[in-house]
Amino acid sequence: MFHLIHLFILGLSSFPSCLPNQYQFINMTKTWSQAQLYCRENYSDLVTIGNQTEMDELINALPAGWSGPAWIGLYNISWTWSLNNTQLEGSGFWDVGQPDNVNDNEFCVTQYTDLASVTDATLSAVHNAILVSSGNVFGLLFFCILAT
């Protein structure tokens, strides 16, 4: 039976930009909506990533040896960050041709360390590491942003 480690990412977006974000690894299985709710109830929100420095900080918060896809606080309704409902700005965040949200059935996940490689992915694109039921994707790790 396939097992996934489940991750939530927490970050402090309300801190001054000179301070690094703080992230919390959560070892649970959640859908994107469940992960968002968990982060909002217990921390601040799912992680937002604004530049390569923030991506590097996030990578450094991962448990040693862990690699895999993770939920981030970006959703595919006009590609908006969960935290503060702000639009993803600029084209440098996405792989070429992304986001395309084929058949309105893709969810934003990434397992890459380059910010420019963020992609929207289908079930087959994450190699059956997640399950789909009623349009919800299960089994991804996530980080939450720490509350101030």
Automatic annotation (TrEMBL):
The keyword Glycoprotein does not apply. Residues 1-20 form the signal peptide. SMART domains: CLECT (SM00034). Residues 23-110 form the C-type lectin domain. SUPFAM superfamilies: C-type lectin-like. This is C-type lectin domain-containing protein. InterPro entries: C-type_lectin-like, C-type_lectin-like/link_sf, CTDL_fold. The keyword Signal applies. Keywords: Signal. Coiled coil: none annotated. It comes from the Eukaryota.
